[in-house]
Amino acid sequence: MADRAYRLSFTTGGLLRADAVAIAELMVTASDASTARARAVELNLVQQRTTASTVRVTREVVQRVSALPQAGVELVAQGSVNDSRQLMWLAACLRYRFLRDFGREVVRDRLVSGRGTVEYADFDTFWNLQSSWVDALRDAADSTRAKLRQNTFRILREAGFLDEADRVLPTNLSPAVAAVVADSGDELFLSFPIHDAQVAAFAGRDGAR
To answer: What is the residue extent of each domain of the chain?
Structure first.
Protein backbone atom coordinates (compact mmCIF):
# COMPACT_ATOMS: atom_id res chain seq x y z
CA MET A 1 0.00 0.00 0.00
CA ALA A 2 1.11 3.56 -0.59
CA ASP A 3 2.56 5.42 2.35
CA ARG A 4 0.04 7.72 3.97
CA ALA A 5 2.65 10.49 4.32
CA TYR A 6 2.95 13.28 1.79
CA ARG A 7 6.59 13.15 0.69
CA LEU A 8 7.65 16.12 -1.42
CA SER A 9 11.07 15.03 -2.63
CA PHE A 10 10.25 14.46 -6.32
CA THR A 11 11.60 17.87 -7.34
CA THR A 12 13.90 16.68 -10.12
CA GLY A 13 14.44 13.75 -12.45
CA GLY A 14 11.09 13.21 -14.07
CA LEU A 15 9.83 9.65 -14.46
CA LEU A 16 13.40 8.21 -14.40
CA ARG A 17 12.32 5.35 -16.66
CA ALA A 18 15.60 4.68 -18.45
CA ASP A 19 17.55 4.85 -15.19
CA ALA A 20 15.03 2.51 -13.59
CA VAL A 21 15.34 -0.07 -16.36
CA ALA A 22 19.11 -0.26 -15.89
CA ILE A 23 18.90 -0.41 -12.11
CA ALA A 24 15.99 -2.86 -12.05
CA GLU A 25 18.14 -5.28 -14.05
CA LEU A 26 20.59 -5.22 -11.15
CA MET A 27 17.85 -5.49 -8.55
CA VAL A 28 16.48 -8.66 -10.16
CA THR A 29 19.75 -10.50 -9.56
CA ALA A 30 21.20 -8.71 -6.51
CA SER A 31 20.78 -10.16 -3.03
CA ASP A 32 19.05 -6.98 -1.83
CA ALA A 33 18.31 -3.38 -2.81
CA SER A 34 21.33 -2.01 -0.93
CA THR A 35 23.68 -4.21 -2.92
CA ALA A 36 22.03 -3.18 -6.17
CA ARG A 37 22.24 0.49 -5.22
CA ALA A 38 25.93 0.28 -4.37
CA ARG A 39 26.68 -1.44 -7.68
CA ALA A 40 24.59 1.09 -9.61
CA VAL A 41 26.52 3.95 -7.99
CA GLU A 42 29.82 2.24 -8.78
CA LEU A 43 28.82 1.90 -12.44
CA ASN A 44 27.13 5.33 -12.53
CA LEU A 45 24.16 3.83 -14.33
CA VAL A 46 22.27 7.11 -13.97
CA GLN A 47 25.06 8.90 -15.88
CA GLN A 48 25.45 11.89 -13.59
CA ARG A 49 28.51 14.15 -13.65
CA THR A 50 29.29 14.16 -9.93
CA THR A 51 29.41 11.45 -7.30
CA ALA A 52 26.92 13.33 -5.14
CA SER A 53 24.41 13.51 -8.00
CA THR A 54 24.97 9.85 -8.85
CA VAL A 55 24.27 8.83 -5.27
CA ARG A 56 21.19 11.05 -5.00
CA VAL A 57 19.55 9.99 -8.26
CA THR A 58 20.40 6.32 -7.75
CA ARG A 59 18.84 6.41 -4.29
CA GLU A 60 15.67 7.96 -5.71
CA VAL A 61 15.39 5.35 -8.46
CA VAL A 62 15.96 2.46 -6.06
CA GLN A 63 13.39 3.82 -3.62
CA ARG A 64 10.77 4.06 -6.36
CA VAL A 65 11.48 0.67 -7.91
CA SER A 66 11.59 -0.96 -4.47
CA ALA A 67 8.00 0.16 -3.90
CA LEU A 68 6.87 -2.25 -6.63
CA PRO A 69 6.08 -5.93 -6.11
CA GLN A 70 8.84 -8.25 -7.34
CA ALA A 71 6.91 -8.97 -10.54
CA GLY A 72 6.88 -5.23 -11.19
CA VAL A 73 10.65 -4.93 -10.71
CA GLU A 74 11.15 -7.75 -13.19
CA LEU A 75 8.77 -6.17 -15.69
CA VAL A 76 10.53 -2.81 -15.46
CA ALA A 77 13.78 -4.60 -16.26
CA GLN A 78 12.49 -6.86 -19.01
CA GLY A 79 9.19 -5.46 -20.31
CA SER A 80 8.31 -3.10 -23.12
CA VAL A 81 8.85 0.66 -23.04
CA ASN A 82 5.15 1.18 -22.37
CA ASP A 83 5.20 -1.36 -19.54
CA SER A 84 8.15 0.35 -17.88
CA ARG A 85 6.59 3.79 -18.28
CA GLN A 86 3.36 2.70 -16.67
CA LEU A 87 5.09 0.83 -13.89
CA MET A 88 7.33 3.77 -13.08
CA TRP A 89 4.17 5.88 -12.78
CA LEU A 90 2.83 3.22 -10.41
CA ALA A 91 6.13 3.31 -8.50
CA ALA A 92 5.90 7.09 -8.24
CA CYS A 93 2.33 6.81 -6.96
CA LEU A 94 3.37 4.24 -4.38
CA ARG A 95 6.26 6.41 -3.24
CA TYR A 96 4.44 9.76 -3.41
CA ARG A 97 0.87 10.00 -2.24
CA PHE A 98 0.61 13.45 -3.82
CA LEU A 99 1.10 11.97 -7.30
CA ARG A 100 -1.28 9.10 -6.61
CA ASP A 101 -4.00 11.53 -5.52
CA PHE A 102 -3.31 14.01 -8.33
CA GLY A 103 -3.54 11.21 -10.87
CA ARG A 104 -6.89 10.11 -9.49
CA GLU A 105 -8.55 13.40 -8.63
CA VAL A 106 -7.27 15.55 -11.49
CA VAL A 107 -5.79 13.62 -14.42
CA ARG A 108 -8.25 10.74 -14.56
CA ASP A 109 -11.12 13.08 -13.70
CA ARG A 110 -10.32 15.16 -16.78
CA LEU A 111 -10.44 12.02 -18.92
CA VAL A 112 -13.72 10.61 -17.66
CA SER A 113 -15.46 14.00 -17.46
CA GLY A 114 -14.50 14.86 -21.04
CA ARG A 115 -12.74 18.10 -20.09
CA GLY A 116 -9.58 16.64 -21.49
CA THR A 117 -6.82 19.07 -20.49
CA VAL A 118 -4.82 19.48 -17.29
CA GLU A 119 -3.46 22.96 -16.64
CA TYR A 120 -1.06 24.46 -14.13
CA ALA A 121 -4.08 26.14 -12.54
CA ASP A 122 -5.53 22.68 -11.86
CA PHE A 123 -2.37 21.76 -10.00
CA ASP A 124 -2.59 24.93 -7.92
CA THR A 125 -6.25 24.32 -7.10
CA PHE A 126 -5.51 20.74 -6.06
CA TRP A 127 -2.53 21.87 -3.97
CA ASN A 128 -4.60 24.53 -2.20
CA LEU A 129 -7.39 22.08 -1.40
CA GLN A 130 -4.99 19.46 -0.06
CA SER A 131 -3.00 22.01 1.95
CA SER A 132 -6.04 22.65 4.11
CA TRP A 133 -5.30 19.37 5.87
CA VAL A 134 -1.72 18.43 4.83
CA ASP A 135 0.88 20.38 6.79
CA ALA A 136 3.68 19.48 4.36
CA LEU A 137 1.86 21.26 1.55
CA ARG A 138 0.76 24.23 3.60
CA ASP A 139 4.30 24.80 4.90
CA ALA A 140 6.15 24.26 1.61
CA ALA A 141 8.04 27.17 0.09
CA ASP A 142 6.73 28.71 -3.12
CA SER A 143 9.89 27.55 -4.88
CA THR A 144 9.23 23.95 -3.82
CA ARG A 145 5.66 24.18 -5.06
CA ALA A 146 6.84 25.50 -8.42
CA LYS A 147 9.43 22.72 -8.80
CA LEU A 148 6.89 20.05 -7.88
CA ARG A 149 4.36 21.47 -10.32
CA GLN A 150 6.89 21.48 -13.15
CA ASN A 151 8.10 17.96 -12.37
CA THR A 152 4.58 16.56 -11.96
CA PHE A 153 3.75 17.61 -15.51
CA ARG A 154 7.10 16.30 -16.74
CA ILE A 155 6.43 12.91 -15.13
CA LEU A 156 2.95 12.73 -16.64
CA ARG A 157 4.26 13.58 -20.12
CA GLU A 158 7.09 11.06 -19.87
CA ALA A 159 4.61 8.41 -18.72
CA GLY A 160 2.62 9.10 -21.90
CA PHE A 161 -0.43 10.41 -20.03
CA LEU A 162 -0.25 14.02 -21.29
CA ASP A 163 0.70 15.33 -24.71
CA GLU A 164 2.71 18.50 -25.25
CA ALA A 165 -0.48 20.57 -25.03
CA ASP A 166 -1.26 18.85 -21.70
CA ARG A 167 -4.24 16.98 -23.09
CA VAL A 168 -4.92 13.74 -21.25
CA LEU A 169 -4.07 10.65 -23.30
CA PRO A 170 -6.01 7.53 -22.33
CA THR A 171 -3.73 4.59 -21.73
CA ASN A 172 -4.01 0.84 -22.19
CA LEU A 173 -2.52 -1.41 -19.54
CA SER A 174 -1.09 -4.73 -20.63
CA PRO A 175 -2.28 -7.78 -18.67
CA ALA A 176 1.14 -7.98 -17.01
CA VAL A 177 1.04 -4.35 -15.86
CA ALA A 178 -2.56 -4.69 -14.72
CA ALA A 179 -1.58 -7.68 -12.59
CA VAL A 180 1.17 -5.67 -10.89
CA VAL A 181 -1.19 -2.76 -10.24
CA ALA A 182 -3.78 -5.14 -8.79
CA ASP A 183 -1.13 -6.70 -6.56
CA SER A 184 -0.28 -3.21 -5.29
CA GLY A 185 -3.94 -2.38 -4.60
CA ASP A 186 -7.00 -2.14 -6.83
CA GLU A 187 -7.54 1.51 -5.86
CA LEU A 188 -4.35 2.40 -7.73
CA PHE A 189 -6.08 1.77 -11.07
CA LEU A 190 -7.88 5.05 -10.35
CA SER A 191 -4.56 6.92 -10.61
CA PHE A 192 -4.20 5.93 -14.28
CA PRO A 193 -6.01 7.72 -17.16
CA ILE A 194 -8.29 4.79 -17.92
CA HIS A 195 -12.06 4.66 -18.24
CA ASP A 196 -14.49 3.29 -15.67
CA ALA A 197 -15.11 0.10 -17.62
CA GLN A 198 -11.39 -0.67 -17.62
CA VAL A 199 -11.13 -0.02 -13.90
CA ALA A 200 -14.04 -2.36 -13.25
CA ALA A 201 -12.60 -5.04 -15.51
CA PHE A 202 -9.11 -4.89 -14.01
CA ALA A 203 -10.25 -4.63 -10.40
CA GLY A 204 -12.65 -7.52 -10.88
CA ARG A 205 -10.15 -9.92 -12.45
CA ASP A 206 -9.71 -11.88 -9.22
CA GLY A 207 -12.87 -10.73 -7.50
CA ALA A 208 -13.37 -7.79 -5.17
CA ARG A 209 -10.61 -7.24 -2.65
So the answer is: 17-92, 96-203
